[in-house]
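Forgive a beginner's question, but would it be possible to get a protein, spelled out as residues, together with the matching structure tokens, please?
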Amino acid sequence: MQFNPVAVASIVTGPLAIGSRGQSVTLVQEGLNRANVTPRLKCDGAFGINTDAAVRAFQKRKHLQVDGIVGPRTTAALGFRYVAGAPVPKPVNIGDLIGPILKNMQPPPPPPEDSAIAHLVQAVVQGIAEIEAGVMRIVNSMSELPDIVLNEIRSALADPFQTAISMLQACVRTAAGAVGAATGIISGAVRGSFQKVVAALQVVVGVLSKVADLLGLSGIVSKIQAIIVKMQRATDSIIDVITRTLAGVGRTIVDGITEILGIIRSAAAA
């Protein structure tokens, strides 16, 4: 039988999840980019939180179980052939979890404890970015909205969400230089960033409420209001996860990242 390199290159050996590495991950990342899901991925063979977010977005689009794990069904939906391999590996290197964006946050590379702070905070950043993208998908899908209203909503979201993300990124640098006060610094940044996000969503609700009855958008308004309530409740839970994770109480960094993203995604799914 003649060797077919194309067929071999289209095989995904899985399951794959956060912490997985290798050619199969690269292949999945390429497939996700071709599927135009968000976020856009660097095809580096490292399955981090951005790849996890893209896998979940793809699974949701294809009406698959949204678990962030690339198994037979997700692989088939991407157009590849699945071969069962070893169980999902337990990551041993925290640096494998986060993409190149963290490398630019604070040169030189931080010591392990500061790196843990950066990874946990980046999980919050990822969650906030997903909320903004989700709200914009809802808004952009409402073709009946006048352009002036759409532009008002986009404007209301852009600056506050970016400010929230900037606050979190800045707190990593500050916390790294004040180890004894790191938890308090991070807690303050998380609260402040969530307040910015909630305030922006409240503005969106106000804008939509003006035209809700006329255009039949009361359901959309209620959904965003529910997200606001759950975001407000999620703040303390996220701070508790970060505090316990940094203290080494009952969870690893990977567990903390997964739990933070789960809390925020649950709020966004209201």
Observations:
- Residues 1-8, 89-113 have pLDDT under 50 and may be disordered.
- The two ends are 54 Å apart (CA to CA).
